[in-house]
Structure formats: structure tokens, C-alpha cells
Fold:
Amino acid sequence: MSTDWSSELVARARVHAALGEPARLAIVDRLVLGDASPSEVGAELGLPSNLLAHHVKLLEQAGLVERSRSEGDARRTYLRLRTAALTGLVPSGVRQARRVVFVCSRNSARSQLAAALWAARSTVPTTSAGTRPAEQVHPLAVATASAHGLSLARSRPQHVEQVVGPDDLVVAVCDNAHEELDPADRLHWSVPDPARTGTEEAFDSAFQDLADRVERLAPAVHVP
Structure:
């Protein structure tokens, strides 16, 4: 008997098939809380490059993972989890931290918005910083926050070296910051820089991206 399955059912089947292999499930678990380059994933999971490429290709075909080109080093790409392809996925790894510090290069937009979102979502303290701080918070970041009921009126850019402590969880929210910081145990969110476009739409898109990521990470972080 021939059965015409719906496209939605076929897509769900591809997701289940893709996750039915331990290495691919481990890759998805790694990307739940933050983005990573293929080399970073391979090093952490102990997968050779050819095998990693095979698994990533299957995850991409299933709609679970997508790539983005680094805004810092254009030779690099980052993998990010497409959470819309999953239902009911919650962060699997609990992290302990005295404070969450969001870092981008200028500390004028993404990191400021992320800290404001975090403060509204979690009781774990938060702040933000930059590797090369700007003179002021971007006006469109202030306007975007205000449009969503958050305030950046008193926020000022500050340097990461003057902010980050030994018990902080650092979340790099841009490629440049991730690549400029010394190697450390931190999370990386590859969020495109809205200031490059400089439009309200770009800032709102960055805000929504950060809001989704904060919502996933917040339940996993606890004060020790």
C-alpha cells in the first residue's frame, strides 16, 4: 500500500533519524547553549574532521544545524542550532556562576541588550563589557530595549578586563569578541552585528535572537 506522508511528518522523521546517532546527538547537545566552529566541536568531542563533516552535513540536511560566516575572521564558520526544528528542547547542562557577563567588541549594542534581557529573566546577577568599548551605547540599542519594556538609559560601555572575575560565566555575543578573548571556559553566541546595517529591523532581529538564547540559558545557570 502506498502512503503519501505529509511534509511535516517527513521533516520530523528526518530530525529523529539525525538524532538517532550518539555523535550527532552530542553535537546538538554542544550547540544548545552556544555556537561553535566545526574545529571547536571536533576538539571537544574528539571527532576527526572527516567524520565531523559527515555528521554536520546530515544535521544540516535535517534542518537542525546551520552555518554562519564569522564577522571577524572570514575564513571561519560557526555552527548554530536551529531550535525551531526541535520541540521541547531545554538546556541540558547546568552551569554555576556568581554572575553572567555578556561581552561583545564595542559593548554598545548586543552585550547591553543581552544583559538587560538576562536581568529581566534571571535572578543571577549580570553585567556586560567590551574588548574595545565604544564611547556610548548605540542609540538604536537604547530605543530597541525601550520598545520591549527594558531600559539602557544608565548603561555605559566598559572594558572586559575591568569587569570579568574568576567566578563569572562569560558569554561572547559576537564573533570578534570570541576570537579576541584569551582561551577560556565561556559560551559563544554568533549574533550578527546590527550596527553594521544600522536599521531598526537589524536591531530588533538581534534582540529577538538574544531573547531566544537567554530564555534557553537562564534555567541552566545557578549561583553556587
About this structure: The chain has a mean pLDDT of 92. The chain has nine helices and eight strands. The first strand starts at residue 65 and ends at 69. Residues 176 and 222 are 27 Å apart (CA to CA).
